[in-house]
Design brief:
alpha/beta, Alkaline Phosphatase, subunit A, Arylsulfatase, C-terminal domain, 2 domains, eight-stranded mixed beta sheet, four-stranded antiparallel beta sheet, 16 strands, globular
Length: about 475
C-alpha cells in the first residue's frame, strides 16, 4: 500500500525544494532516446553533433558525467528504469519480454497520489505496463492534448523516442551531418560507408533534439516549464558493433541531464557514479510519496541539491537474450570495471540491427582482408575470456584486459566480491538455469528468423524451426 503521507526524511528534503502540497508538486517529464551513445551531444563535448535543446537543458540544470544503465537492451532497460528494479528482478530480462503481472511502474503510485500519467511513442513493455498510464500519444504533436487532459493536476509523462534506432534513411535532419566531420570510434573501421552510417545516426539524434525542443516550447507556452522536472537519458548504447548490447561503457553509459528551474542550480556537473536504478525512487520522493518497497534504488535528490556529493561506490549491469543469448554481468567503479562472461565458446552475440549495419559489414570486410586492428578484432575472438578487467580511467575504450595481471589481483578480488554480493542480494539467476536459442548468426550477423525461442530451464535450448 502506498501512503500519501511523506516520510520524515523525504519531508525534510522536499521542504528544501518547496513542494509541500499536491497541487504544487512538480510535473515530471522523462525523455528517453532509443539507441543513443552516452557522449554524442554538444554538452558532452561532441564536436559535430548538433543538439541545441539538450545542451540548453544541461546549461540550465545538472549534467551527470558517469551515469550508467542496468542493461544495454531496449525493452529490459525501459522496464528496469520505470520499475526501479534490475532486469533479472523484473521477470522481463530478455528483449521483447513483457512486464509480468504484478510488476509495478512508478506511474502507478504517482497516479494514486494524484498525478495524471501519460506516455508517448515507443513503449515496448507489454499490456501490464501500458495499463499503468492514463493516456497514450503516438507523436510529439499530441503533447498539447495530454496537457489539456491533465488540466491543473501535476503530471508524469514518459516520452519514448524511436530515434536513433535503425534502420536509417536520408532526410531525418536538414541540413544533414557531414560524414567528413563524424568521429569514428576506435572499435569501428574508418571507411566512407561507416562514416555515412554514423552521419545518419547523428541526424536521428538531431531530429530527436528538435522534438525535445518542441516539448519544452509547449510547456513554456503554457507556463508549466518552471514547475517541471525534466530528465533526459537513453535506453542503451549507440547501435553499432561493440556498443549496443554490450556492458562496455559504449553500451551501458548513458547521457543523463536533469533540469528543474529554481530548484536545481544551473550549469551543474555531477561526476560521481550514478545508476538509472535510482530514477524511479527519485520521482517518488519528488512527488512526496513513499518509495514502493519493490524498488531497489535510492533517491538522487541529495545529489540534485548538491552535485559535489559522492556518487555510488559501484554500479551493476547485465546482458541477457537480445537476438543472441548471453549471460554477462558487470560491476564498475569510478576507475575499474569487471565483466563476467558465461558462454565462452561462442563469439559475442550482437543485436541484429547492429550486425545488419554498414559499419558491421565494413568490419567483416576488414577482417577478411587482414586490415583489422587488434582492438577491432576483439569482438570476433573465440574463446572469450571468463573474466575481463579494465582500468576505465586509463583505458576508456576497455581494450586491455588486466584480469590475469598479478598487479591487478587486488582490485579483481574486490570487484568479484562486490559482484557476487549484488547477485545474491538481487537474487540473480545462474547461467546454467535457463537458455534461449539465438535467432541471429553470431559470425555473419544475419538474422535467420523472426521467431523467438522459448526459455529452456536446466538444459539446452531447442533449435528454432
Amino acid at each position: 500500500m502506498f501512503h500519501p503521507r511523506v516520510p520524515l526524511v523525504a519531508a525534510l528534503v522536499l521542504s528544501l525544494f518547496g513542494t509541500p502540497a499536491v497541487a504544487d508538486r512538480p510535473n515530471i517529464l522523462v525523455v528517453i532516446g532509443d539507441d543513443i551513445g552516452w557522449k554524442d551531444y554538444g554538452c558532452y563535448g561532441h564536436p559535430s553533433i548538433r543538439t541545441p535543446n539538450i545542451d540548453a537543458l544541461a546549461a540550465a540544470g545538472l549534467k551527470f558525467t558517469n551515469a550508467f544503465l542496468t542493461t544495454s537492451s531496449c525493452s529490459p532497460s525501459r522496464i528496469s528504469i520505470l520499475s526501479g528494479r534490475y532486469p533479472h528482478q523484473t521477470g522481463a530480462e530478455d528483449l521483447h519480454m513483457r512486464l509480468p503481472a504484478g510488476g509495478v511502474f512508478i506511474s502507478t503510485p504517482l497516479r494514486k497520489a494524484g498525478y495524471f500519467t501519460g506516455h508517448m511513442l515507443k513503449t515496448h513493455y507489454g499490456p501490464n505496463g501500458m495499463k499503468q498510464f492514463d493516456w497514450y500519444g503516438k507523436g510529439v504533436k499530441e503533447f498539447g492534448k495530454f496537457l489539456d487532459k491533465a488540466e491543473a493536476k501535476p503530471f508524469f509523462m514518459w516520452v519514448g523516442f524511436r530515434d536513433a534506432h535503425r534502420p536509417y534513411k536520408a532526410g531525418a535532419l536538414k541540413p544533414p551531418h557531414d560524414p567528413a566531420q563524424v568521429v569514428v570510434p576506435p572499435f569501428l573501421v574508418d571507411t566512407l560507408s561507416t562514416r555515412r552510417d554514423l552521419a545518419l545516426y547523428y541526424d536521428e539524434i538531431g531530429r530527436m533534439d528538435r522534438d525535445i525542443g518542441r516539448l519544452l516550447d509547449e510547456l513554456k507556452k503554457r507556463g508549466r516549464f518552471k514547475n517541471t522536472l525534466v530528465v533526459f537519458l537513453g535506453d542503451n548504447g549507440e547501435p553499432f558493433p561493440r556498443a549496443k548490447g554490450t556492458v562496455y561503457d559504449s553500451g551501458i553509459g548513458t547521457p543523463l541531464v536533469v533540469c528543474w528551474p529554481g530548484q536545481i542550480a544551473a550549469a551543474g556537473v555531477h561526476n560521481g557514479l550514478t545508476s538509472v536504478i535510482d530514477l524511479a525512487p527519485t520521482f517518488a520522493e519528488v512527488a512526496g510519496i513513499r518509495k514502493p518497497s519493490t524498488m531497489v534504488g535510492r533517491s538522487l535528490l541529495p545529489v540534485l541539491k548538491d552535485p559535489s556529493q559522492p556518487g555510488r561506490e559501484f554500479i551493476f549491469a547485465e546482458r541477457n537474450w537480445h537476438n543472441a543469448d548471453e549471460h554477462i554481468r558487470c560491476v564498475r567503479t569510478r576507475t575499474h570495471k569487471l565483466i563476467t562472461n558465461a558462454y565462452l565458446d561462442r563469439p559475442f552475440g550482437h543485436p541484429a540491427d547492429c550486425s545488419r549495419s554498414p559499419s558491421w559489414k565494413d568490419l567483416l570486410a576488414a577482417r577478411a582482408g587482414g586490415r583489422i586492428t587488434g582492438d577491432q578484432l576483439q569482438i570476433f575472438r573465440v574463446p572469450r575470456p571468463a573474466v575481463e578487467l579494465y582500468n576505465a580511467a586509463r583505458d576508456p575504450g576497455e581494450f586491455h584486459n588486466l584480469a590475469d595481471q598479478p598487479a591487478s589481483s587486488g582490485i579483481r578480488k574486490r570487484l568479484e566480491q562486490a559482484l557476487e554480493t549484488w547477485r545474491q542480494q538481487t537474487k540473480d539467476f545462474p547461467a546454467s538455469r535457463r537458455r534461449r536459442a539465438d535467432n541471429v548468426d553470431r559470425v555473419t550477423g544475419v538474422k535467420f528468423t523472426r521467431t523467438i525461442g522459448p526459455q529452456v530451464k536446466e538444459g539446452k535450448p531447442k533449435p528454432l524451426r
